[in-house]
TrEMBL record:
Belongs to the BRE1 family. The keyword Transferase applies. It is an enzyme of class 2 (transferase). GO terms for molecular function: ubiquitin protein ligase activity; zinc ion binding. It comes from Acorus gramineus. Residues 215-242, 302-329, 468-544 form a coiled coil. This is E3 ubiquitin protein ligase.
Length: 723
């Protein structure tokens, strides 16, 4: 019995342990696999973030190297530009010195010798000065172009510096974000360590000895572990979601960065085009400033010419005064005074006569106005007559209408009486029973007839009264109108009489004025004849005066001609001096270093003043200067070509940078693919490792099952099970 009891107790114990252990075995293995997979995913994400950090560091170093290279190139370019600028300035100073020497020598020769230079030499000098001025202008334009290119290069350097600062700021932002991600990864690693510790503790609690614990305790532990594992899985999922969201954000930021770089490239191209346009506009403004300066110079010349003209006018007035002084004699004075008095009085007399003629011409216009008034008054009379005829016709029409209305009233009254009485009479004639009633009705009829007659009479009287009133009113109105018309007619007749009298008076005045005009015309004719006689006398006198003063005038003209020639020569000299001064001022205004070469100018001026043959040497020096200018032009062209080449190199470097960026992007994409493949392989390896660990656990369990089976088998035969 004892054996059977022990056997039953053991059987119950093993039956209670076996299902829980099997359930735990089948549930714990996949949980461990999920945890391992999550840990591998987090590790893979950490590796990716580290790779991105390394890539960004490499990009930062590459950009820094490019910036340093561009800075070195800009320094070299600025040095070359400074050297070119100094060489151009030296050339310009030398050319200005040569021009100033040539002008000074020409002025010195002119002032020392007091003899005009030959026309050929002066023309050659002017041509040389003009050529030098044109060359100086060309040099200035080339220098301005070089300055504009230097400014553009400086602007490009500043732009690269700004881009470098922007890249630094972006790198700082990315480093801060990466630090945050590192902190999050450390937290996730800590959580993973905690999860691993919990898993190890769970593994240690999964396989207890079959003799310890009870059924309820094992179930409670299993439930607690399940809850903890579920909580940990939830936290892991949250961390995975956060990491995936961060990856998506990083990808979106990277795409935004690429878009921003593209936009920056487009904006850079637009900016370059805008800068080129701005330079063109500045050049156009400078070119437009040249004619303004020329206009200012022309205005100054115009002012000078006006002053000269004023001087000439003053001299002419002085000469006129001298002539008058020479012509003033005793007999001439009286004749000239009388002639002037007659000449001055003649226009006054003519003005008086003209005013009288205008007055006489105005009188017929007054007569015409009076005639127009008479015509107007006669038209008003005719209108009033027509209005009277219209009013009389209207009064006749109104009387005929009144008569028609009276006839209509009589007809209406007769019809009313006949329609009211005839039916009653017919009724009583057909039914002659009550004669008394008939008599009464007749009496009533008579009474009604008498009332009708009274009404007719009253209506007639009333209509007559209305007619009389209307007729009286119409007569009164017509009488008033007639009286007003008669008064107007009387006024118009009076006005007509007055106008006729005025016409008669004006006609008499016209006749008198015509007679006076004829008299004045005869007087004017006599005055004109007298004026012609005076003119003939004056002509004779003037001929005598001219004959007497021809000799004096000839002398005066000769003297004036000599003076004019002297003054023209002086003015030419002054104009030459002024032109030379203006040219020297303009040259000094644009170049401030002429004072440093005064010694050389003196030496050259002495050499040029000694001999006229040195002009050939000066021309040779000018030709050499021209050659230098040509060389300088060639050098400037070469520099411009080098600048263009450098700009093209910059553009090609930009294109290479963009190509390198594209290649980097492709390499990053390939690295991402490789990382994904590595991640898949690591997952497979971890899965295989888990399977191996699971197989080792299964072997242990199989050994335990064998032990339990050995316990259950018979100890004697080792084949039968115990009962």
């Amino acid at each position: 019995m004892g054996s059977t009891g022990e056997h039953d107790r053991k059987r119950r114990h093993f039956s209670s342990v076996s299902p829980t252990s099997a359930a735990k075995k089948h549930w714990i293995v996949p949980c461990s696999e999920d945890r391992k997979l999550d840990a591998t995913v987090l590790q893979f994400q950490n590796q990716k973030l580290l790779q991105q950090l390394e890539v960004q560091k490499v990009e930062y170093t590459a950009l820094q190297n490019k910036f340093c290279q561009l800075k070195d190139k800009g320094c070299d370019f600025s040095d070359t530009l400074s050297v070119v600028d100094s060489s151009w300035k030296e050339l310009v100073e030398k050319l200005e010195a040569l021009a100033a020497n040539s002008r000074a020598s020409a002025n010195g020769r002119f002032n020392d010798k007091n003899s005009p230079v030959s026309s050929e030499t002066s023309i050659q000098l002017w041509e040389a000065t003009n050529n030098l001025a044109m060359e100086v202008k060309n040099l200035r334009s080339s220098l301005s172009n070089l300055h504009s290119k230097q400014r553009s290069s400086l602007y490009d350097l500043q732009r690269y510096r700004d881009e470098h600062a922007k890249n630094k700021a972006e790198v700082k932002c990315l480093s801060e974000e990466l630090e945050g991600t590192f902190v999050e990864l450390e937290e996730s690693n800590r959580n993973l360590i905690a999860l691993k510790a919990q898993r190890n503790s769970a593994h240690g609690a999964v396989f207890p000895s079959p003799t310890l614990g009870s059924k309820h305790v094992a179930e409670d532990k299993a439930r607690d572990e399940q809850k903890e594992l579920q909580d940990m899985e939830g936290t892991l999922k949250e961390f995975l979601d956060l990491s995936s969201n961060r990856l998506v954000e990083l990808k979106s930021l990277y795409e935004d960065r690429i878009k921003i770089l593209k936009k920056l490239a487009v904006l850079q191209v637009e900016k370059d085009s805008f800068l080129w346009r701005e330079r063109e506009v500045n050049l156009k403004v400078e070119l437009a400033d040249i004619p303004r300066r020329a206009s200012l110079v022309a205005e100054s010349r115009i002012d000078e010419m006006e002053k000269e003209l004023q001087k000439r006018v003053d001299e002419k007035t002085q000469l006129d005064k001298r002539l008058e002084d020479a012509l003033r004699e005793s007999g001439r004075r009286e004749i000239i005074a009388e002639f002037k008095e007659m000449v001055l009085s003649f226009p006054k007399d003519m003005e008086c006569i003209q005013s009288q003629l205008n007055h006489f011409k105005g009188s017929p216009s007054e007569i015409h106005s009076m005639r127009a008034e008479v015509q107007y008054l006669s038209n008003i009379l005719e209108r009033k007559k027509t209005e009277l005829g219209v009013l009389s016709g209207r009064s006749a029409e109104q009387t005929s209408e009144i008569q028609k209305l009276q006839g209509v009233v009589h007809e209406v009254v007769g019809l009313y009486c006949s329609q009211n009485l005839t039916p009653t009479v017919r009724h009583w004639q057909n039914d002659p029973r009550d004669l008394e009633d008939v008599m009464e009705l007749r009496d009533l009829e008579y009474k009604a007839w008498s009332g009708v007659q009274c009404l007719k009479s009253s209506l007639d009287e009333h209509s007559l009264e209305l007619r009389v009133k209307a007729a009286n009113e119409a007569e009164a109105i017509s009488q008033q109108r007639l009286a007003a018309a008669e008064a107007e007619i009387a006024d118009l007749r009076q006005k007509l009489e007055v106008s006729k009298r005025d016409i008669c008076r004006s006609s008499e005045v016209l006749k008198s004025k015509h007679e006076e005009g004829e008299a004045y015309l005869s007087e004017i004719e006599t005055i004109g004849q007298a004026y012609e006689d005076m003119q003939t006398q004056n002509r004779q006198l003037l001929q005598q005066v001219t004959e007497r003063d021809d000799y004096n005038i000839k002398l005066v003209m000769e003297t004036t001609k000599n003076r004019q020639l002297q003054e023209t020569l002086r003015m030419e000299v002054l104009t030459m001096h002024q032109e030379m001064q203006q040219a020297s001022e303009s040259m000094n205004f644009y170049n401030l270093k002429v004072s440093l070469l005064e010694d050389q100018l003196r030496i050259w001026s002495e050499q040029i003043g000694k001999l006229l043959d040195d002009e050939a040497q000066a021309s040779v020096s000018l030709e050499s200067a021209k050659k230098r200018l040509m060389d300088a032009h060639k050098e400037s062209q070469h520099l411009g070509q080098s600048l263009d080449e450098r700009e093209s190199k910059l553009e090609t470097s930009r294109i290479d940078v963009s190509d390198l960026q594209i290649e980097m992007e492709s390499e990053r994409f390939d690295q991402k693919r490789i990382d994904d493949d590595i991640e898949i392989l690591t997952r497979k390896v971890t899965y295989l490792q888990v399977r191996r660990e699971g197989s080792s656990v299964i072997e242990k369990l199989q050994q335990e099952i064998k032990e339990y089976k050995g316990i259950l088998k018979c100890s004697v035969c080792h084949e039968r099970e115990k009962q």
